[in-house]
# Entry
Amino acid sequence: MKRIQTLLGDIPPEELGITDAHDHLIRSGGMEVVHDRDFLLDDVDKAVQEMELFLKAGGKTIVDMDPIGCGRNVPKMLEIAKRFAGRGHIILTTGFQRGEFYDHRTHWVATCTVDQIAALLVAEIKEGLDLHSYNGPVVERTTAKAGVIKAGTGYGAITPFEKKVFQAVALAQQETGAPIVTHTQFGTMAMEQIELLREYGANLEKVVLSHVQRNPDLWYHKRLLDTGVSLCYDGLYRVKYFSDNVIANLIHELVRAGYQKQLLLSMDAGRASYQKAYGGGVGIDYMLTVFVPRLRSEGLAESAIEDILIHNPARIFAIDKA
Ligand SMILES: [Zn+2]
# Structure
């Protein structure tokens, strides 16, 4: 039986609907916020407002990718999920961001064994999320479970700390069947992430790489997809990097080349200045109100749009259960 683990419980994959596969509703702290207050997303009402706009535009599910130690706030996420009961779904992640956000010498990822780290991730998927996000010695599990595992690497290199995380994440996947969604920094180290995950025994068909569009090299993306992983494009309307046509063209080219079953889409609106509810930006709904209609008007087949928004996330986020 295949089930997707949302914050309010398991759902059949057909229930998932139009999905934003990598976004941020709440980030209550962490190193990103220390560096730049724009990363602070701490308001439940504003998160509800932002998700409401996404639903109004036809969306159903948001995958929140704030992991352990980076401001993940389980109680607030549960509150948001409850407000959308019966109307929308939220999937929350366990796992880690890129190594830069943790102390490589004293963090428990550094001091624990790979098996111990993997066991903590497995517990969040099988038993329930820790209300304190493993920030301290007290672990209090809710009945809500993580539905995805995150791992990340920095720009152009993978540190021993990050390798350890990748090993733990691959083990946790083998134990649970949960999908892995990774962070690449500007799209670098994507192939190296795949090689690590393969070496550690991960199922590449349940692996999604994020932010690879920041390195918008079609040849490179095809090589990545040929390994069996999927790519989640995000960062629409980030014109400071490049305009949307770069991402649209990648999608058109890859669909033409037969990769439409391996593409997902998201906004990754992880800054207050990207979200309408905080008074800035084009909002999470932009992907549905502007970008998808644009793809359609440029001739992208409806079957490709449905795969990218609905069927691919439903397949990848589904977990095999007895
Ligand atoms: Zn993100």
Q: What stands out?
A: The domain at 2-320 is CATH 3.20.20.140 (TIM Barrel). The chain has a mean pLDDT of 97. Residues 60 and 88 are 5 Å apart (CA to CA).
